[in-house]
Amino acid sequence: LAHNGNLVNADELKRLVEQQDHRHLNTNSDSEVLLNVFAHELGKHATNGLKPQQILDAVEALYKRCSGGYAVVAMIIGYGIVAFRDPHGIRPLVLGIRETPNGVEHMVASESVALDAVGFELERDVQPGEAVFIDKRGYLHSRQTAARRGYTPCVFEFVYFARPDSRLYGQNVHQARVRMGELLAEQAPVEADMVMGVPESGVPAAEGFAHRSGIPLGQGLVKNRYIGRSFIAPSQELRARAVRMKLNPLRHNIEGKRLVVIDDSIVRGTTQRALVRMLREAGALEVHLRISSPPVMWSCFYGIDTGERSELIAHRMTLEEIRADLDADTLAFLDLDRLIEATGASEEGFCDACFTGHYPVEVPVSLRKHVLESNQLPVAEDVVQPELVPGQVP
Asked: Considering the entire predicted model, what is its pTM?
């Protein structure tokens, strides 16, 4: 089983799986919790083997127990592959198709680029609350196994996670990021000599900013392709070290220039703090930070490792305090309305909880990031809907 997302009720499910379902868990991963819930429901619905409808029945039962944002694919050995997406559609999941001499083949993936790489065409999104089962003969079975509870896909996929050559909800990710930069140039203009993007996800927005502002676009940073995402490193020290290892300034391009530096987001501020320091040491006269998303002020509980809310720089500081802390000459974030406009999918609702605190799936008051990994299970049974009482959400 492969799982993209987080279960917000994983701690409660873990107790039930072990105490009521009588299943043993070997790790503190919510993916293993989800796997055991699914296996238990398969066992309950199986009669003389597993038929496609029984597998879809098991997914329907799982939806009634699991809460959060999740996209799942699992191999049922000897029968086929099943995939399903949470009823809010928070995490992406797509269905691909290709013709072969032996008939039609299907594929599921988080992004359309995975389909491109092996010769499949994007057929459609797996719908929120939908389950699809591809049997061992290659036949596709699907069912809306849970009612859609308001379609709220994660807008941060457009900002950062999705590859630029992917299509999300019918929109090209690269074009969306270029539009973010154009709208950012309209919202927060500045006089400068060069626009540069922070690789990789800041580069398309830099293209858009340069195009709309008329300031020349240039390259100011070289990325080490062998270093991963620094914001998910486990400690502040490792995150700061990873930034230096990941990015290196092109001194001859930036020395003596006023720079507009475009980045996709600021989470803890570690990357941008080190980045501004590197650029100044390399001779930049001015550093104007422009961020192609709103301030990240709330923790994500649906699969993005933004960390505890106390770690988020925009939760702890005002805009001016952030600017001073990062040592930037100016700082501006793209407004949420403009971000939604830039996606081109504004007719859909989005999960923007990391920016607004409006969580589409209710979150337990006591929930903290990595609750299972820490082996400290919360005891409170209350839940909160942040749209009504945002102050109670951690």
From this structure: 0.86
For 150-162, how does the pLDDT look when each residue is reduced to its tens digit (9 = 90+)? 899 999 999 999 9
Span 241-266, average pLDDT: 91
pLDDT of amino acid 364: 79
- What local confidence, expressed as pLDDT, does residue 283 receive? 97
| Pair 337, 366: CB distance under 8 Å | no
- Asked if 86 and 53 count as a contact pair (C-beta separation under 8 A), the reply is no
